[in-house]
Amino acid sequence: MRSIRILPLASGALIAGALALSACAPKAPKTLPPEPGPARSSETNPGTLGPAPGSQGDFLAFLSGQDTIYFDTDKSDLDSTDTAALQKQAQWLLRYPAKRATIEGHADERGTRDYNLALGERRANSAKNYLVSIGVEPARLTTVSYGKERPVALGSDEASWAKNRRAVTVTVE
Q1: Which of 20, 90, 94, 145 could disulfide-pair with 121, CB 3.0 to 4.6 Å?
Q2: Which helix (DSSP H) or strand (DSSP E) does residue 11 occupy?
Q3: Which CATH entry fits the domain spanning 56-149+164-172: 3.40.1010.10, 1.10.600.10, 3.90.1150.10, 3.30.1330.60?
């Protein structure tokens, strides 16, 4: 019968390997971090509870949901509800002349991708042209069409489609 002899060099390598692996084991911290406090937003105005003036949060608070206008099927024309929302957007934009905005055009899921991109573009341009007509500098406004690629409502029914036929105004820095 043969006996197996471990060479000193091999046993040293085994010990070094075991020590290296044990060094990787997680260790508990000596002190725990403090409990998280209330969330702080970069758009919060220090010393107040509201959003910072001129921020996207301020824009949304001022508009009370009127950052989005809605369209009928295959339409890009504005109705009185849309123009009222756009007038309120213009008030805010005129108050902050250094702010710029992007108007995003969207469509529902029906129709081809190309058709919906063109329809979203017409919707965004319709909103932009109205804002320009009531005094917002055109250089401050850009448009983008997402077509049917960014729905807010998932579903293949009239209620979902109506929510997705929209133009949304977003402020940019």
Answers
A1: 145
A2: helix 8-23
A3: 3.30.1330.60
